[in-house]
Amino acid sequence: MWILPLRYPDGRVRAVTHVRSSAIVTAQSLLRETGKHAAYEEGLAPEARRAVLGIVPGSWVPVEAALAHHRAIDQLRLPPSEQIALATGSGEKMQSAMTGTILRMSREIGVTPWVLMPHGHRIWDRICRGGDLSIERVGPKEAIVRMYGLPLFSTSYFRVAIRHVLQGGLSHWCSRCYVTEVASTPTSATFREAWA
């Protein structure tokens, strides 16, 4: 059952052109704190270095600069635990921007993840210009989330980060939750969410 169908037919999803800067700025700050920022800078493509290092909070970032940022993180070859720590720190900032008011209200009245999911397009539009997502209910406490048109999925770090953002969002409503990557292409990804 579709909780949130695609807004555009499969072949007509526009590519993402810009993303919000919050998670990027937070990741850069965390890389400074852990002493990895110099190596990160070295990993930036020379033609993108100025744009990526000039990203400021609260701005829209061209997807090419965001892609250069994520590729530079991939080149750090961080162990899984450090990728998760970086993704979690960055994801908390993004999650706060996406769902702050809804989360505060839902905690007070005890709603389930199904209440937030129909608002996915509004949340998506707060962090991406272009692209699309769909959410399908496949069980009482299980959903399939598909995201399209976002070239950042070509980097392994971004897929780890999104998985942890999704898991962090679910954790507000349940005692245990799991998010697994089911499939990905350079511009799309599918995740299975389950919770108890």
Give the structure's gist in a few sentences.
The protein has 196 residues and is of the alpha+beta class.
Q: Can you put this structure into words, describing what you see?
A:
The protein is an alpha+beta fold. The protein has one domain (2-195): H-NOX domain, CATH 3.90.1520. It contains eight helices and eight strands. It has helices spanning 22-33, 37-43, 46-53, 63-76, 80-109, 113-116, 120-127, 156-170, and strands spanning 2-4, 18-20, 60-62, 128-129, 132-139, 142-148, 177-185, 188-195. The strands form two sheets. The chain has a five-stranded antiparallel beta sheet, with helices on one face. α1 (22-33) packs across α5, α2 (37-43) packs across α4 and α3 (46-53) crosses α4. It is globular and about 45 Å long.
